[in-house]
């Protein structure tokens, strides 16, 4: 069993509370304004919220295929274990190639509509990559990463995934408290893509890529345009390999 990045996150120190390190950024592709944090790899993560705390948020990932094969942002706190992790990764020809030694699975054909960045929502129940599983909510509260198509693309090496995280904040035990002004969150950047190019594909990453903490200004992330932006989200393409 492989030890994942999550253990690194558990050991990292907290930084000063009450400070924010995000900046206001409006994405030209969608017109959505986010509080964004940029990591040394060039990976950018952003968050937009409604004025009145609700169950949804809008998220944004942007980076280079060369540097970032998958990225995840923890939206429940600085510790990934037991908190929701939103992930996204670009389409690469390596998708489907397992990097687990001795287990190079045959790449499943990726449908044309899925040759774009994909995202999903996961919950880590343990320290191994196999324990970072898709999370779809409890009962009728369906948790879903819904792409905003104008903000989902790959151009050369650059990829972007903009999404409505539906019901991601329905359960405050595993997601941020929107009543706070700021909160320390975390994200990870991986050098290996998941095992396949479909939502819920097992993560292969288990090495030492950087883990970043960021403290979004939650107050500044709130916009009265949120509902209008949220309407841009669509059902995710079904990219699951046919069994
Ligand atoms: C996306 O990431 C690339 C590579 O780091 C960068 O050049 C580009 O400006 C970014 N775009 C946005 C909208 O942040
Ligand atoms: C998977 O890896 C093998 C060996 O490195 C390579 O020949 C093959 O082209 C890869 N498959 C894809 C879909 O990239
Ligand atoms: C290889 O990977 C497949 C798909 O993830 C998995 O079902 C299988 O158990 C793995 N085999 C070994 C020997 O790890
Ligand atoms: C909220 O999340 C916690 C931790 O995963 C879980 O035990 C609980 O059942 C969840 N509650 C609801 C209403 O989904
Ligand atoms: C967060 O942003 C608001 C403006 O939206 C500002 O008034 C406040 O000082 C900021 N808080 C911090 C801790 O930077």
TrEMBL record:
Q: Which organism is it from?
A: Tothia fuscella
Q: Which residues form the Cellobiose dehydrogenase-like cytochrome domain?
A: 25-95, 121-227
Keyword Ligase among record annotations: no
The UniProt keyword set, sorted, is:
Signal
The signal peptide, as residue positions, is 1-18
Q: Any idea what this protein is called?
A: Cellobiose dehydrogenase-like cytochrome domain-containing protein
Domain of life the protein comes from: Eukaryota
Which Pfam families has this protein been placed in? CDH-cyt
Query: In its keyword annotation, does this UniProt entry include Signal?
Result: yes
């Amino acid at each position: 069993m492989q030890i994942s990045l999550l253990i690194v996150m558990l050991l990292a120190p907290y930084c000063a509370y009450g400070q924010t390190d995000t900046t206001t950024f409006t994405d030209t592709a969608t017109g959505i304004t986010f509080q964004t944090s940029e990591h040394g790899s060039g990976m950018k993560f952003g968050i937009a919220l409604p004025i009145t705390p609700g169950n949804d948020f809008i998220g944004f990932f942007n980076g280079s295929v060369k540097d970032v094969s998958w990225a995840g942002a923890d939206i429940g706190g600085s510790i990934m274990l037991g908190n929701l992790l939103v992930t996204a990764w670009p389409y690469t020809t390596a998708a489907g190639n397992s990097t687990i030694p001795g287990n190079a699975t045959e790449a499943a054909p990726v449908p044309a509509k899925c040759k774009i960045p994909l995202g999903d929502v996961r919950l880590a129940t343990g320290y191994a990559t196999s324990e970072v599983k898709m999370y779809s909510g409890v009962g009728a509260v369906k948790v879903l990463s819904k792409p905003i198509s104008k903000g989902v693309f790959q151009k050369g090496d650059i990829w972007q995934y903009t999404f409505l995280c539906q019901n991601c904040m329905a359960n405050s035990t595993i997601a941020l408290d929107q009543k706070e002004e700021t909160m320390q969150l975390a994200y990870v950047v991986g050098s290996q893509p998941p095992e396949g190019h479909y939502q819920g594909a097992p993560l292969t990453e288990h090495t030492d890529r950087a883990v970043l903490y960021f403290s979004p200004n939650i107050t500044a992330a709130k916009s009265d345009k949120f509902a209008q932006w949220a309407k841009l989200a669509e059902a995710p393409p079904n990219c699951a390999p046919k069994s």
